[in-house]
Amino acid sequence: MALMTSPDLHEIDSTLPSGWRDFADVLAAGVDRVILYGPPGTGKTFAALHFGMRSVDSERLICTEDITTADVTGTWMPTGESRWEWLEGPAVRAWRSGGRLVVDEIDRAAGDVVSLLLAMTDTDGSARWRHPQSGEVLEPAPGFSAVMTTNLERLDELPSALRDRFPVAIHIDRPHPASVWRLSEDLRRPALNGTLGDADRRVSLRAFFAFDQLRAAHGPERAAMLLFGETKGRAFLDALAIASLRA
Ligand SMILES: Nc1ncnc2c1ncn2[C@@H]1O[C@H](COP(=O)(O)OP(=O)(O)O)[C@@H](O)[C@H]1O
Ligand SMILES: [Mg+2]
User: Fold this and answer.
1) Which of 58, 91, 102, 115 has a beta carbon 3.0–4.6 Å from 120's, enabling a disulfide?
2) How confident is the model at residue 15 (pLDDT cuts 50, 70, 90)?
3) Around ion ligand 2, which residues have CB less than 5 A away?
4) Is residue 106 within 8 Å of residue 155, measured between CB atoms?
5) Taking the model in full, what pTM does it have?
6) Residues lining ligand 1, judged by CB closer than 6 Å?
7) What are phi and psi of 143, to 5 degrees?
């Protein structure tokens, strides 16, 4: 990806935060079942979708309390007069293409969805799925991988069966240097640090992107107030001013 190879990134930060280094090492070793966990807005989903992917696309499943097994492997759909066809879900599509299944916010999925996801991400060689319409028995195509993400801070909050199936779990607590590249220059380092001093006041990557956009239209004061309110907005502007003095 162009964003990741920009030379300017080295000026921003030549040392990759450890979680990101771990993820790169794990992918390079060919490990194809990974969980990324940690606070929101650090680029976990982006990385799961794009890092290490070349020719084939990723299939994304966003978990909520409301999704069902139909959202994983598919469901019967009416396709005309008294005709029904099985519309394949993201897990089956990723099996067919040998691409990556990205399961976002896995902690929010209900038990039966998790069970099906475990079956669909079982070790290559033992995973099988029978197509309800054609009877075809599928296996994951070579190259199939699965990355799950969660904003949980502690891994032991995840079902143990899932932990067992995904032995490599990486804590991501800071944005990837590549992710700040689209921000205005003065915001890049503060965004990488992710926090205004203490954990309670962490500002996510998404908030930095929004701030940048609002600031361009309405100026910094108004942008900070709109995003964070009076107290935190003031603290945010102070922290930016200090950061720019240091730079
Ligand atoms: N490497 C990157 N390059 C460009 N944009 C990125 C990168 N990583 C994250 N982003 C952007 O930052 C925002 C937050 O990333 P996201 O992956 O959704 O975080 P998380 O899943 O940790 O909550 C998104 O708008 C995303 O597109
Ligand atoms: Mg996410």
Assistant:
1) 91
2) confident
3) 45
4) no
5) 0.87
6) 3, 40-46, 149, 176, 178-179, 205-206, 209
7) 100, -15
Q: How many CA atoms lie within 13 A of 177 on its CB side?
A: 18
From the CA of 42, how far away is ligand 1's center (Å)?
6
Whole-number Cα distances in Å, 63 to 26, 60, 115, 149, 199: 24, 10, 13, 10, 26
Q: What's residue 14's pLDDT? A: 57
Centre of ligand 1 from the C-alpha of residue 210, in Å: 13
DSSP the chain: -HHHH-THHHHH-SSPPHHHHHHHHHHHTT--EEEEESSSSSSHHHHHHHTT--SSPEEEEE--TT--THHHHEEEEEEETTEEEEEE-HHHHHHHHT-EEEEETGGGS-HHHHHHHHHHTSPTTT--EE-TTT-PEE-PPTT-EEEEEE--S-GGGS-HHHHHH--EEEE--S--GGGGTTS-HHHHHHHHH-BSSSGGGB--HHHHHHHHHHHHHH-HHHHHHHHHHHHHHHHHHHHHHHHHHH-
The residues, any chain, with a CB within 8 Å of residue 70's CB and separated by 6 or more, are: 89
Compute the average pLDDT of residues 95-112. 96
Sign of the torsion formed by the C-alpha atoms of 160, 47, 13 and 236 = negative
- Ligand 2 centroid–CA 117 distance in Å is 18
Strands 83-88 and 74-80: antiparallel
Give the pLDDT band of residue 198 (cuts 50, 70, 90): low
